[in-house]
Amino acid sequence: LLPGTVVEVEQVVAKFDAITKTWVRLDTLEDKAVSKVELGFLPGSTWRYEIHHAVNLPVGGKVNLHELMGVCSRSGMQLGGWFVFERAEEVRLRSNSFTNTEDFFEQVERESVIIENFFRSRDVVVKAQRCSVEKVLCVTKNGE
């Protein structure tokens, strides 16, 4: 790998549909971290799970990300940020956060309600709202 390359190895372990309020737990092959032998250098320490909230809006859907982030933060959500990906068919908003708890289900559901209320209170049409939870097996930077 090139010096300074960041390597993330994650496995999706659960998905939540915030509109239907349904969970899908995914089968995982193994419950282990990536080793130095497999990677070629020592993995760093990190959070156990990464949570990704996803909200899809119709084309032309507008949202103030600074305002969304503020509402989420004041509600106790520990987000890394919100990101926008504009596509021909829709506007996709994505966030990331982390947790160490195995019982992430309540956290995801609580955060999903906060996000849902944000859009509902602003009369913003939401095409889809969901969340995926990834088990972090390894995050490291080559050369460290």
What does it look like?
22% of the residues lie in helices and 39% in strands. The protein is built from three helices and six strands. The protein has helices at residues 36-39, 65-74, 105-121; strands at 6-17, 22-25, 49-57, 79-86, 91-99, 128-141. A six-stranded antiparallel beta sheet has the order 2-1-6-3-5-4, with helices on one face. Strand 1 and strand 2 form a beta hairpin. The two termini are 13 Å apart. The model has no long low-confidence stretch (mean pLDDT 87).
Task: Produce the secondary structure layout.
Elements lengths: L5 E12 L4 E4 L10 H4 L9 E9 L7 H10 L4 E8 L4 E9 L5 H17 L6 E14 L3
Antiparallel strand pairs: 1-2, 1-6, 3-5, 3-6, 4-5
Short description:
With 144 residues, the protein is an alpha+beta fold.
**What ranges have pLDDT less than 50 throughout 5 or more consecutive residues?**
none
**How helical, in percent, are the residues?**
10-25%
The radius of gyration computed from the alpha-carbon positions, rounded to a whole number of angstroms, is 17 Å
Which structural class do you get from the secondary structure elements? alpha+beta
* Portion in strands: 35-45%
List the strand order in the largest sheet: 2-1-6-3-5-4
How is the biggest beta sheet arranged?
6 strands, antiparallel
> How are helices and strands ordered from N to C?
EEHEHEEHE
How many β-strands, per DSSP?
6
Q: In DSSP terms, counting alpha (H) and pi (I) runs of 4 or more, how many helices?
A: 3
Average pLDDT: 87
Distance between the termini: 13 Å
Principal-axes shape call: globular
